[in-house]
Specification:
Elements: H1 3-18, E1 33-37, H2 38-43, E2 57-58, E3 75-79, H3 94-118, E4 136-142, E5 151-157, E6 162-169, E7 176-178, E8 202-203, H4 209-212, E9 218-220, E10 223-229, E11 235-247, E12 250-264, E13 272-275, H5 283-287, E14 294-298, E15 308-312, E16 322-327, E17 336-338, E18 340-345, E19 348-349, E20 367-369, E21 376-378, H6 380-392, E22 399-400, E23 409-411, E24 417-421, E25 423-427, E26 432-434, E27 441-443, E28 449-452, E29 454-456, E30 462-464, H7 466-469, E31 474-477, E32 482-485
Parallel strand pairs: 3-4, 6-13, 7-12, 20-30, 21-29
Antiparallel strand pairs: 1-24, 2-26, 3-5, 3-15, 4-5, 4-15, 5-6, 5-11, 7-13, 8-11, 9-10, 10-11, 11-12, 14-15, 14-31, 16-17, 16-32, 17-20, 18-19, 18-25, 22-23, 23-28, 25-26, 27-28, 31-32
């Protein structure tokens, strides 16, 4: 029996036992509206999981066997607004944080588009080897106020391990940290890693097969040099090395990491970046058979005191998840593409041709899931159709002026809750993901202005951003070619 069929049968048995889903091949009906808790989002004082997350997935997809025991270790993921701030002058005002976040997001989308157009998104050879470790993981934190990525994880680097905050990035392949001696470094929360103080740091030779897997490899005094540039002008340059990384009580040896002696850009606060992309030099690619090419994450919801999570290995694959096939794009092995067939508003499918989400003959389109992009982007015709459908069903809400990249905003000052139509993703093959209201109407200032959290991409590429993924357990099974959603909140 195939992996997907096994997953499907088990979910069917669970659904039958709980009467939570039908036993036919059709999907259970989903509501055409829900309630947005305006004051809860504005106050940012609640730490509980909103009720909307309890039944966000409307589908019927079968399964047969457990995908493994619970992961032995998990890491916290935290959002940027909970990160220790190295510069106390960083403002906490929601309006300023929003503006800065949108500025970063525009740069991020430009970066992805440029990498895709250049055909350099992860063409890095075969997957890495087998390490023989147990499943492990970490909690995830979001990084909104620091000038770097959106979500952070804390891991140990070297021996003895030096704890460092690392940006997680599902669209990048290189693992790197700032290193001493630092000829050019930005400010970070923790002391800069010193390889001379690590007993396990081992610089990679220019003649090493690991060095050959780098796209922009160089050689200096017999050592492999790396250089990674990002579309927003950020970069890291330094020496490639094999080093030990520590996740909780789990130690992973001989991970190829960049030891950056020259670094600049959008990484302030974090020590570096943990690449989780699909290429061979990412952390997932290097672990290879150890994790079974699988990992899962839950991005913490904005405005809560909770941490999200990051887990590695087959134990991160939840029983009862709905599985959607990954779409392979030979042009960009780093990115995780999914098959999207349509969008829905208020329980009604928006009239958008399915080929608007197709990869295309040149691999420049398609739908990418990305942890580093905040706001979901669609090609302009798709976005316009989605926006018009949403606007037509929100005439009861007072409008507000456009802000930043958002052209559809509402003045919800004084409201405790508001009734809004649902927004749904229709995936290829049938599954329908209905988003919680807080994942598509977000506060953008302290005055009660909320905006529809989608935007045009300016290209043929679609990107499902982290705002739409928040609070939803996402599982990437790269080895078998599936991404899973839910079924439970995290």
């Amino acid at each position: 029996m195939s992996f997907l069929a096994a997953v499907s049968v088990l979910l069917f048995l669970q659904a039958a036992a709980t009467a939570a889903a039908t036993t036919s091949s059709t999907f259970s009906p989903f509501p055409d509206f829900q309630h947005l808790k305006v004051q809860e989002l504005l106050s940012s004082s609640k730490s509980h999981v909103p009720d909307e997350y309890r039944n966000f997935f409307n589908e019927h997809q079968p399964s047969e066997q457990s995908l493994g025991e619970a992961a032995k270790y998990r890491l916290n993921l935290i959002h940027r607004d909970r990160m220790p701030v190295p510069d106390s002058s960083v403002p906490a005002n929601l309006t300023v944080r929003f503006r800065d976040r949108m500025d970063r997001d525009v740069r991020r989308v430009r970066t992805l588009s440029q990498r895709l157009s250049a055909g350099k998104a992860g063409a890095l050879g075969d997957q890495g080897g087998y390490y023989g470790l147990d499943d492990f993981g970490s909690d995830v934190v979001s990084g909104m106020d620091q000038g770097s990525g959106e979500y952070f994880v804390r891991i140990g680097v070297g021996s003895p391990p030096r704890s460092q905050y690392m940006v997680i990035d599902s669209g990048s392949d290189i693992v790197w940290v700032q290193c001493q001696p630092c000829s050019q470094c930005y400010r970070q929360t923790d002391p800069v890693f010193d390889p001379d103080e690590s007993a396990t740091f081992n610089a990679v030779s220019c003649r090493s097969s690991v060095c050959d897997r780098l796209e922009n490899a160089g050689c200096h005094s017999g050592r492999c040099r790396y250089e990674v540039s990002y579309g927003d002008g950020s970069f890291t340059k330094g020496t490639l090395a094999l080093e030990t990384l520590t996740f909780g009580r789990t130690t992973v040896q001989d991970v190829a990491i960049g030891c950056g002696h020259m670094n600049q850009g959008m990484f302030v606060g974090a020590a570096g970046l943990l690449g989780l992309g699909g290429g061979s030099m990412s952390f997932i690619g290097q672990l290879g058979g150890q994790t079974g090419g699988a990992f899962g994450y839950c991005l913490v919801s904005r405005g809560t005191g909770d941490s999200g999570s990051l887990e590695f290995g087959r134990a991160a694959m939840p029983v009862g998840a709905t599985w959607v096939p990954l779409v392979q794009n030979p042009r960009s092995l780093s990115f995780y593409y999914v098959g999207l067939s349509g969008l829905g508003v208020g329980g009604i499918r928006v009239p958008i041709p399915e080929d608007a989400f197709a990869l295309g003959n040149f691999g420049l389109a398609g739908v990418v899931m990305d942890t580093g992009t905040a706001v979901t982007r669609f090609p302009s015709p798709v976005y316009n159709a989605l926006r018009e459908a949403f606007v037509s069903q929100t005439t009861n809400l007072p409008g507000a002026s456009p802000i930043s990249i958002f052209d559809t905003c509402y003045d919800l000052y004084g409201f405790a809750t508001v009734r809004v139509p649902t927004v749904s993703f229709y995936f290829s093959g049938g599954p329908i993901l209905t988003l919680p209201a807080r994942n598509f109407l977000i506060p953008v200032d302290d005055a009660g202005t909320f905006c529809f959290a989608f935007a045009p991409s300016g290209t043929t590429l679609s990107i499902i951003g982290n705002i739409q993924q928040e609070g939803i357990q996402v599982s990437i099974d790269a080895a078998n070619g599936f991404v899973g959603f839910g079924p439970n909140v995290c």
